[in-house]
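Contributing new complexes? Match this layout with DWN.
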Amino acid sequence: MNIKFLDLGLQPLANSYQKSHKKKTKKKEKLYKLSVSFNTKTKLVSLVNRIPDKKMFNNTYPYKSSMSKTMIDSFKELSKKIKKRFKPNKFLEIGSNDGALIKNFANNKAICVEPCSNLAKITKKNGYFTYNEYWNLSLAKKIKSAFDKIDIIYSANTLTHINDLDEVFRSISYLLDKNGVLIVEDPSFLECIKKVSYDQFYNEHIYLFSALSVKNIINRFNLELFDIEKLPTHGGSLRYYIKHKVNKKIKIKKSVSHQLSREIRFGLRNYATYKKFALSVTKSKKNLIKIFTDLKIKNKKIIGYGATAKATTVLNYCNIDSQMIDYFVDITPDKINRYMPGKNIKILKYNRKLLDYIDYIYLGAWNFKKEIFKKEKNFIKNGGKFITHVPYPKII
Ligand code: DWN
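Output block (do not edit by hand):
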């Protein structure tokens, strides 16, 4: 049974950065209900309303994984680890984005799957065999007939974006070699609760995984977890290592039972934990609005840093608009000179000079705080302050 526990109101599509100021053009931006539920049997956390894939993942998807050094370094480290630990002959990535990870593998050893054609074009151009398609069983069959054995399937921040999870894992189980390994990386729901990072929810993130829910879902497809790594990326992620149950050569590591116990101890099987989280979200909203209004009363100049999908959830849930935030800065080419979805705040091309005469910066990309603080040490040295809502609204 699915029980709704969190309501984040009406929200625009998170990655649909508007070309023009909607209030000026009087054209209405489409808004969708964003609420979150918990399945009492599988422990899976998911959105109540689903948006068709094609509306979100098409030929204009703006997000590029290679925009942060943190992610580039994390992918480089992981590819070294995969090569050493599993020595793959054929590596397949589902949701290869702009190739931030795949570029660490030789062209003849790696295959990309990417439904957004603007991104698929990049890996194709860089010589990788790229299927510009959505991940499903018919694609898995096509790949099997072309390449036969796939010994590593990897997917970061993608499987949680696909509505039909049964088809996702059925297709993986079909394609993955008997002795092969599936590696899945996604934000951890436990970390999301601990950090009250409710902005992990937006229409693209249909699911937020925990080890408990992943274990339950993959079990239906004769797959099992054999290792779990905790990662600092994207506000705290888990990397799940999965194998076919019939493969007894790979031993199950203690990290699996440790993570499951951690989640059980925290209460991820109990509805009361979810209700408590929803209360913390309401409190976070109230306190963040207070910080912004208090600063605006004092005529402080505030901008945003990192025009993230996550920031869209925060701005629309807390009703923070261009009266509060003058503009956002971002380095992603396809976001520049556009407007934050739903809130008409302009996104400018990042330039250090844009931080001059600014009193406060709202950290849209709080998950890259370390990287951003390092880059902006002069802003901090000159007395500039940051605003964040994670793990609770505060000025840093
Ligand atoms: O799952 C998803 C995650 C992985 O990425 C997608 N559905 C959408 C996207 O979500 P997001 O937009 O919340 O992701 P990020 O990775 O937190 O976005 C960071 C943004 O900040 C990018 O637009 C790049 C920008 N940035 C910047 O302008 N200067 C980032 C850094 C580190 C910087 O120095």
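Reviewers usually confirm one structural detail per submission. For this one: Residues 63, 67-68, 157, 204, 234, 306-310, 330-332, 335, 350, 365, 367-368, 371-372, 375 surround DWN (CB under 6 Å).
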